Amino acid sequence: MDNITRICRKCGQEKPLSEFVRDKTCASGYRHTCKQCDREWRRKWDAENAEKRRERKRKWYAENAEKRRERKRKWYAENAEKRREWNRKWYAENPEKCREWNRKWLIAHPEKVREYKRKYYLANAEKFTERCRKWRIANPEKCRERNRKRGINDCKSLTDRYLRDKLRRNNLPITPETIDYKRIQLKLYREIKKQTDYERN
Ligand SMILES: [Zn+2]
């Protein structure tokens, strides 16, 4: 059979019959194009169609994005109670994992935590003030001790509270700028004092 040859209509090369696929629809019983040309054609067709398929898919997603979002939203709304129930159950069954997730979330979102705390405090300000007042009345000793410690720390760290108090005592205006100014002034003063103390000894 190898000595019978055939010319490929595509590449024009003369090749043995074994290089052509059998095809009963052709008069000769073999395809007009050689196996290699067939392979190349198939590869090209696949590549072109893959691109077309991708393009169609992309278009479909773009055209249906709104619809899909809407469907998702509806599903969530319809299953809200079910989801809440499922979540509750899951949380109850996985307390360790939940705590771990919460801990990670809190670390990853410090600004959200601050905002949440601030809002919570504002919403419950009266309750907090009242609770603090009661605590102070019930624990005069602890209160004094805490104030003393706080005072030492404020003085050492030059906190806003400490600086506001200083300004108030000197009848100076209390603004963010004057607070900053006072802080710089006190820092300088302390540095100089430290230096002179050192030189004296
Ligand atoms: Zn060929």
Could you explain how this protein is built, in words?
- With 201 residues, the protein is mainly α.
- The chain is 76% helix and 3% strand.
- It has 8 helices and 2 strands.
- It has a two-stranded antiparallel sheet.
- α1 packs across α2 (80-93) and α7 (160-169) crosses α8 (176-200).
- The longest helix is centred in the N-terminal third of the chain and has 44 residues, at 35-78.
- Bound molecules: zinc ion.
- Residues 8, 10-11, 13, 33-34, 36-37 line the site of zinc ion.
- The site of zinc ion has 8 residues, from α1.
Q: Distance between termini?
A: 114 Å
Per DSSP E runs of 2 or more residues, the count of β-strands stands at 2
User: Strand order within the widest sheet?
Assistant: 1-2
Q: Which structural class do you get from the secondary structure elements?
A: mainly alpha
The largest β sheet comes out as:
2 strands, antiparallel
Q: What compounds are bound to the protein?
A: zinc ion
The shape is elongated
Tell me the Rg in angstroms: 41 Å
What is the number of helices? 8
In N-to-C order, the SSE pattern is EEHHHHHHHH
